[in-house]
Recover the amino acids of this structure.
């Protein structure tokens, strides 16, 4: 299998943490690419018509894309049991992906648009999604996050780490002390340390 990836993508990081946690990293060849919404990689587009990462080439069928699809596929292939929490695991993963999507859009707004085109209302709307999701995680999902390792936990950790990486002053920890404590512990895992993105 071949994974098209960039080390700063939180969606890629989900896949990478899964590979580290399952001990299967050696079964996937990593193909680092440079791609943006404005200048998409032709190499990635050949595997994913949406030209987004991650994209996973496999020998037994068409390439897979969307991190949730790839993680579900690898979980099944490796028999990892990372969706043993059923719908709760999947809702947590979807919530985390929503945080990532909003935070990535905030990043694009600041880094890819010139200042005259940037919308403060748009930025604040995405920020509201991130903070609202964090409040929900803190209020409703701490017991699940503190349970046995699953894909929901991995996704939430990667989402919060990305917010810290690109938007360190967003303030998601304010009022979310339980979530902060959980993240501090989870972020110390070997899989999270091994997949920490480079500063850029």
């Amino acid at each position: 299998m071949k994974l098209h990836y960039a080390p700063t993508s939180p969606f890629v990081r989900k896949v990478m943490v899964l590979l580290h946690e399952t001990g299967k990293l050696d079964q996937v060849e990593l193909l680092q690419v440079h791609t943006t919404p404005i200048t998409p990689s032709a190499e990635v587009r050949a595997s994913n018509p949406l030209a987004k990462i991650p994209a996973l080439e496999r020998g037994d069928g068409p390439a897979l894309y969307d991190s949730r699809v790839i993680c579900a596929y690898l979980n099944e292939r490796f028999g990892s049991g990372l969706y043993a929490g059923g719908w709760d695991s999947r809702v947590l993963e979807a919530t985390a992906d929503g945080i990532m999507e909003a935070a990535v859009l905030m990043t694009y707004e600041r880094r890819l648009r010139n200042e005259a085109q940037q919308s403060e209302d748009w930025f604040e709307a995405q920020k509201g999604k991130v903070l609202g999701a964090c409040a929900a995680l803190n209020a409703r999902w701490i017991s699940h996050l503190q349970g046995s390792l699953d894909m929901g936990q991995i996704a939430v950790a990667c989402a919060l780490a990305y917010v810290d990486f690109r938007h360190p002053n967003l303030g998601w920890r304010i009022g979310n002390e339980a979530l902060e404590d959980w993240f501090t512990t989870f972020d110390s895992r070997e899989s999270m340390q091994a997949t920490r993105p480079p500063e850029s």
Remarks:
- The first strand starts at residue 2 and ends at 5.
